[in-house]
Write a structure and sequence with these properties.
Blueprint lengths: L12 E5 L6 H8 L11 E2 L2 E2 L5 H5 L2 E5 L7 E2 H6 L6 H10 L3 H5 L8 E2 L8 H14 L4 E5 L7 H14 L4 E5 L3 H4 L4 E6 L2 E2 L2
Parallel strand pairs: 1-8, 1-9, 4-7, 7-8
Antiparallel strand pairs: 2-3, 5-6, 9-10
Helix pairs in contact: 4-6, 6-7
């Protein structure tokens, strides 16, 4: 990244677009401190993120990535991550992101077994579960990195609808190639070779 500088205000949706290797995912990784910056500063609410404990910082982020990670267990355990929440809270998160539709068709519903890496669900269904898990934990900042890249067309409309709703939850940072994901953003930052070009 070279001379990258921008502001995103609370509640805004900012989309990062550009060719592969332009720096989009790097920006998101730096904000979460997956690795630290060598120069410059990243401020959240005016505080340098290097002065915030990593665990404390990451508690405020919900990351939804292209490759959704689901572990062996049930849909319920994948959504709650062992925290205790009521049945209604879980289903509310599922309804919010349209995951309730396919869950309702499963023999065991929310307690349906999840095989390793969620390979008994389609890419779209895994993505909806990832959205529900994020919404359920109510982060202030949602990070969406290419999360709509390998979605089957059947689920795409549900996912677009979910994304629009999720934009109302908090601040959203989006990396996407699909225009449908980007066009409703408040701010679009175009990157090329590590620089903001528009």
């Amino acid at each position: 990244l070279k001379g990258v500088s921008f502001h995103i205000y609370p509640g805004q949706t900012a989309a990062f677009v550009g060719a592969t290797g332009s720096g989009k995912s790097t920006i998101l990784s730096l904000i979460c401190r997956n690795y630290d910056i060598q120069k410059g500063r990243i401020l959240i609410d005016g505080i340098d993120i290097r002065n915030i404990k990593i665990a404390s910082l990451r508690r405020h982020f919900g990351q939804m990535l292209q490759d959704v990670f689901l572990f062996s267990g049930s849909i319920r355990s994948n959504l709650t991550l062992r925290d205790s929440f009521t049945e209604e809270e879980i289903m509310e998160a599922c309804r919010y992101v349209n995951a309730d539709r396919f869950i309702a068709k499963l023999p065991k519903g929310i307690d349906e077994p999840v095989r390793e890496r969620g390979n008994n669900f389609s890419a779209g269904e895994r993505q909806l579960l990832s959205f529900a898990r994020t919404v359920y934990h109510q982060p202030e900042v949602l990070i969406l990195d290419e999360a709509t890249a390998n979605i089957d067309t059947e689920t795409e409309q549900l996912i677009q609808n979910s994304l629009e709703k999720m934009m109302n939850i908090g601040t959203m940072l989006v990396v996407a190639h699909r225009l449908s994901t980007v066009k409703k953003a408040d701010k679009i930052i175009v990157l090329s070779r590590g620089k903001i070009i528009e």
